Structures are given as structure tokens and as C-alpha cells.
Amino acid sequence: MTSESFYLYLPSSVNNTRIVNKLNHFVTKLQQIKYLDTSREYEVALISLSYPRTVFNAYYAYITYWSWEIEAKVELSSLADGQYNSALELIEEIHVALGSDAKYYKFTFDSRRNKISVLAKRKEGSKEGDILLKMSPNLQILTGFTAPIDKEGNTTAELEWDVTGGMGQIFCYSNIVASDVTVGDASAPLLFSTAYNNKGDFGQQILYEVRNPVYVPVAVDRIEDIEIEFRNKTSEYFKFTSGEVVLLLNIRAKPNFNYGLF
């Protein structure tokens, strides 16, 4: 039988036989199986989290568009994966991706409204072809556009420029947590969620220490290994590119506040 309270140190760098461990999805096998008292209820909370600031806000980002320079052809151009710290930096990369067609799809940024716009136009003298510019899901989140550009003139994004690229919040799921936490419109084994710190130097290690741990119910009475998954708000895996993730968890018997009647 295990003690009423114990801590678990979970690094992403350990090896196991179940899966190939990655920073956003890993399994830690305990050196000794933890058997919980079946007559008690247990709960778990995050005590600290260390993770690398190595998440790109642009990943698998691309544009498909009607090319006026290449007759009657829809082109696909990819942006370089990376961290774009300003809307103007992203717009410059979009124009590079568009190449000679950039003059027909001119992106601008209104810092007051924090929104990106596109001025689309046809090639002079052209009688055929459609205005068309579509963005990949990640690029839509970054730029704030929720629909394709399919008309001439100026179109402003429905949403504000999002420097996080959809990676602003970390959602951590675990196999030892009960699936009774509501995430969106479904129940999921959510261990915790926290804002991703995208400030500072790229590559630096971020240490998040929880001042007031939030405990959630443990769903098992026997812990042999712990599986951890990091996802974003759209349930995509968090895009760590390098480094190491380390969690410190506390598992304890649920306090009994029944003091009786006097």
C-alpha cells in the first residue's frame, strides 16, 4: 500500500517500450508500481512544469491562390516554419511566398485594430480567372481570416492577428485522470491547462510553479506508468521542436473534511 501523499517526477526524455517518447506525448514507467488504497479516493495536481520555448507559431503554413502570372493555374506556396513575432514579419514572408503574384494580393496590418487586410485585384487586361486565395488552418489562425478571399477589393480579417498561432494555451491530458472534465463540448482526462509563455528568447527553458495547485480525481487504483499528452485548444499536439519537458505531480488521498457534529 502506498502513502497518503507522494510526488512523481516525469521527464519526457525517458525511454519506454509502449511508444516513442516525444515532448508532446510521452509515457513514464514507474520504477515501482503504486497501489492506492481502494477504500480512499485519490486526487492529483500539477506542482511544477518545465518546458522549452521552442514552439513555432507558423507550422505547415501554406497558401493556395489563383496565379495571374501563370495563366489559369492555382498555385500552392509554403511559408517557412518559424516564430513570427510581429504581423509585419509574417506579411513579409507571405509576400515572399506569393512571389511575383504578391502585387495582386497585397497584405497590410492595422496596428490600432490589430487586424490584417488583403487588397486583391485582377491582372490588368485579364478576362478569365477568379480571385482566389485560401490559407492553411494554422495560417488562418495567425492572420485571423476564417474564409477564403474570393473577391476583388479590400478584405479585412474577421479576427485579430494571433501571435500564438493557436498555441497560446497548453492542455495536458493523462491516463490516470478521470474523464469527467469538460473540454469544449466533450469530457476528457484533463490534468491541467495553463498559458504558454511565448515571451523571452527562443529556446530558453520556462519554469512554471503552481502557487495554488488544483487537484482532479485519479481514475485508477494501480499506477504502473503515466501517459502525458500536450495539446492546444483545437486538440492538435503542441508543436515543441526541441528541448525537454518535465512535470512534478502530487498524488494524495482526498482530504476528509467530515469532522462530525458537536
Task: Provide a short characterization of the protein structure.
This protein is mostly beta strands and 262 residues long.
Describe the fold and architecture.
This protein has 262 residues and is mostly beta strands. The protein has two domains: 5-55 and 167-253, Jelly Rolls (Sandwich); 62-156, no CATH class. 7% of the residues lie in helices and 39% in strands. It has two helices and 17 strands. The protein has helices spanning 87-98, 137-143, and strands spanning 5-11, 25-35, 42-52, 62-67, 73-78, 105-110, 115-120, 133-135, 153-156, 169-174, 181-183, 186-188, 190-195, 205-209, 216-217, 222-231, 246-253. The strands form five sheets. Strands 1, 3, 14, 15 and 17 form a five-stranded antiparallel beta sheet that branches. It has a four-stranded antiparallel beta sheet with strand order 2-16-10-13, with no helix packed on it. A three-stranded antiparallel beta sheet has the order 5-4-8. A hairpin with a 5-residue loop joins strand 4 and strand 5. The longest helix is centred in the middle third of the chain and has 12 residues, at 87-98. The radius of gyration is 24 Å and the shape is elongated. 28% of the residues are buried.
